Amino acid sequence: MKVDGKPYRTIWLAEDGWTVEIIDQTRLPHRFVVERLQGLEAAAHAIRSMQVRGAPLIGVTAAYGVALAMTEDPSDAGLERACATLLATRPTAVNLRWALEEMQRLLRPLGDNARRQAAYERAGELAEEDVALCRAIGGHGLALIEAAAAKKKPGEAVNVLTHCNAGWLATVDWGTATAPIYLAHEKGIALNVWVDETRPRNQGAALTAWELGHHGVPHKVVADNVGGHLMQHGLVDLCIVGTDRTTATGDVCNKIGTYLKALAAQDNGVPFYVALPSPTIDWTLSDGIEEIPIEERDAREVTHLTGATADGSLATIEVVAPGSPVANYAFDVTPARLVSGLITERGVATASREGLAALFPERVP
């Protein structure tokens, strides 16, 4: 996608052909910084610290992390250590495990001398595959926005509500939930995107708003608790969110607060869609609430905020009563019954075992 007219991806090989460059998302929206990853530990830190985030991008970064590790130690022990280190960085997004299993499946049968090149080639393939998957998701989701636009008066905007960041910053390019939005914008469909701020890390206000703004898509940032009010007053035509893990039965795990938006959508008759590439489906799970591990993060993400001051410098301030204990759950699970449809690269499925199996029969255990 574009940043002020210049195309970017979120991760790419540097000119030297072996180090990996990323957009450091912890610096956005006030600083645009490209960070270079030069080894396994740097890749693991990038995932753990959320310099890269979003399930698809985490998976691709992990694959490149294995490739970087193979430049350091291509032995069996080196491969196992790399995968264990990367797997431990984030517990919720299934793409991380999927990408590491892909790399292990490829590299284990190879000799040490062949592993480095093979790892880089496969990581690059996974990046390109992610771009293709997201572009296909965009095409299927575009039809939903076009259907909403057909009900509007000429020039009247389609109002889409998002939560967290499921944009190109969460993938290699295009995004999941935003891919239909970008395609609709390119087709000239009038849009307004309601962007939830998404506390505590503000990925909506800091990342989704940043990328939509730099790409020229009309949007408004709203506090997290505004979504229900907007729906009650007919100001949301459809919700599109992403997911970090979806069960084989259609339960959806996404950024904390997604469940509340889904409840409000159902109460107000607003379609609630989830956009996801198939690697985000965990075919081994049936009950998202009981089986998906929910990451609990540092309390400081809740107690403190970092932003720009009037002179442009960055400052971190405390916003919670000093000494108050904090619980920081990073994700919640939206039951399949609240999901209008799952937008995948193969089409829109009902949020059910049968719906997903119809699109991905080869993946059913």
TrEMBL record:
Pathway(s) where this gene product acts: Amino-acid biosynthesis; L-methionine biosynthesis via salvage pathway; L-methionine from S-methyl-5-thio-alpha-D-ribose 1-phosphate: step 1/6
Site (Transition state stabilizer): 164
EC number(s) from the headed UniProt entry: 5.3.1.23
GO molecular function: S-methyl-5-thioribose-1-phosphate isomerase activity
Residues binding substrate, per UniProt: 53-55, 90, 203, 254-255
UniProt keyword terms in alphabetical order: Amino-acid biosynthesis, Isomerase, Methionine biosynthesis
UniProt cross-references to Pfam families, sorted A to Z: IF-2B
Catalytic-site annotation from UniProt: 244 (proton donor)
GO-annotated biological processes: L-methionine salvage from methylthioadenosine
Catalyzed reactions: 5-(methylsulfanyl)-alpha-D-ribose 1-phosphate = 5-(methylsulfanyl)-D-ribulose 1-phosphate; 5-deoxy-alpha-D-ribose 1-phosphate = 5-deoxy-D-ribulose 1-phosphate
HAMAP family found in the cross-reference section: Salvage_MtnA
Family: Belongs to the EIF-2B alpha/beta/delta subunits family. MtnA subfamily.
General function of this protein: Catalyzes the interconversion of methylthioribose-1-phosphate (MTR-1-P) into methylthioribulose-1-phosphate (MTRu-1-P). Also catalyzes the interconversion of 5-deoxyribose 1-phosphate and 5-deoxyribulose 1-phosphate. Part of a bifunctional DHAP-shunt salvage pathway for SAM by-products.
Protein name per UniProt: Methylthioribose-1-phosphate isomerase
Annotated organism of origin: Tistlia consotensis USBA 355
Gene name in the database record: mtnA
